[in-house]
Amino acid sequence: MKLYAIALLTAIALTSRAQTNAPAASNSQRTAQAAADQIDPQPQIRRSLLRAAVDSDILRGYKALEQNQFTQAREAYSQALANNPTQRDALLGIAYAHQALGNTEQAVATLRRLVELYPRDSDGMSALYLISGGDPLSEETKFKQLLERSEYPSAVYYTLGVLYYEQSRFGEAERAFSRAAALSPNQPDYAFNLALSLDQLGRARDAARQYVMALNLSNQTNAVFSRDLARTRLKILTATP
Questions:
Q1: How does the average pLDDT of the chain come out, rounded?
Q2: In the chain, how many domains are there?
Q3: CATH number of residue 218's parent domain
Q4: pTM score, two decimals?
Q5: Residue 105 has pLDDT above 90, yes or no
Q6: Is residue 26 part of a domain?
Q7: Main-chain phi, psi angles of 103, to 5 degrees
Q8: Could you tell me the residue range of the domain that residue 173 belongs to?
Q9: Contact (Cβ atoms closer than 8 angstroms) between residue 122 and residue 155
Q10: Is residue 31 part of a domain?
Q11: What pLDDT score does 149 carry?
Q12: How many CA atoms does the CB half-sphere of 223 hold within 13 Å?
């Protein structure tokens, strides 16, 4: 059964860490502030949350990826990088667009550039390994160390799951994919690879449940795994003896 390792790029490319506008103050907060101003009219420093702007080209690329419009996504992210060559989300997004369009060398080169710029970026490092590979033992050590400092560890757990699965260490793969799926419960490919691991362990009922989960999630968001394979395995696992 095929492991969908490259699915990670779908998850990370469609996840922007930039935040939209901060919530405005409530009416009660404004009323209280106005009352305070009347009591103490002295000039005071006003504290407010900074609002992070989301690049319009990055949003355009994000929407294009969601609709599997990879050429348009590549163009949007290219424009974002023309304005800011070190933009992290744009580098991830265009790497996925390149990979989806069959330009693996460009995807790898882009991810290497990202990791060079952001050596602690776990998403970029995970994506680079899943595309270009490496020595399993040294990579395992590296990703375990990444877990200790990663702010977004789901990608790291996913990558460790791939490492374990490809070495037929299915118990460890199941645990790693479980953690990834728990941290990113809406990611269909995480659910699918967890189902594969459970399937390999002979846990038919749990595997069937995860195949159903993966199929349901794939109706709501982008997915890479083979739905036909998931349905076939589900049919086999739930067949009456």
A1: 81
A2: 1
A3: 1.25.40.10
A4: 0.72
A5: yes
A6: no
A7: -95, 70
A8: 7-14+53-237
A9: yes
A10: no
A11: 80
A12: 23
Structure token digits, residue 145: 């160390």
In 3D, which of 55, 102, 48 has the Cα closest to residue 78? 55
All residues at 6 or more sequence positions from 128 whose CB lies less than 8 Å from its CB, including other chains:
108, 111, 112, 114, 115
Both tokens assigned to 33: 């502030």
pLDDT at 125: 87
C-beta separation of 211 from 182 below 8 A: no
For 173, the token pair is 């793969």
HEC profile for the chain? CCCCCCHHHHHHHCCCCCCCCCCCCCHHHHHHHHHHHHHCCCCCCCCCCCCCCCCHHHHHHHHHHHCCCHHHHHHHHHHHHHHCCCCHHHHHHHHHHHHHCCCHHHHHHHHHHHHHHCCCCHHHHHHHHHHHCCCHHHHHHHHHHHHCCCCCCHHHHHHHHHHHHHCCCHHHHHHHHHHHHHHCCCCHHHHHHHHHHHHHCCCHHHHHHHHHHHHHHHCCCCCCCCHHHHHHHHHHHCCCC
